[in-house]
Design a protein that fits this description.
Mean pLDDT: 83
Distance between the termini: 76 Å
Strand content: under 5%
Low-confidence stretches: none
Structural class: mainly alpha
Helix content: 55-70%
Number of strands: 0
Length: about 100
């Protein structure tokens, strides 16, 4: 008697994961828009750089969510770039406005 591999029933997990990626992207987009608004008011170089990094991180999260398959995470280079852009955004937000020329 041969036993076949059990059929995988993913249930609602793929849908929940897809929704989580969408929520994360939306949250990042709101943060990027707030940084863009702040940069437009103050016009410091660090604020503009933080807004650009946040926008790029949002775009990379959107791409990562689209590249993700049901059983595999997104490609590692995309995730590393997203993490690096997010870290750069956080560090740029720590620059005091007076040191940035604003």
């Amino acid at each position: 008697m041969s036993r076949s591999a059990p059929v995988r029933d993913p249930g609602l997990q793929p849908e929940r994961t897809r929704l989580a990626w969408r929520r994360t992207t939306l949250t990042q987009a709101v943060g990027a828009l707030l940084l863009l608004h702040t940069a437009a008011e103050g016009a410091s170089a660090a604020a503009w750089a933080a807004a650009c990094c946040a926008a790029l991180a949002t775009a990379m999260t959107f791409v990562a969510g689209g590249l993700r398959t049901e059983t595999a995470p997104p490609p590692r280079p995309v995730m590393v770039l997203t993490a690096a852009l997010t870290a750069a955004t956080a560090l740029l937000c720590l620059v005091p406005p007076t040191a940035a020329g604003g």
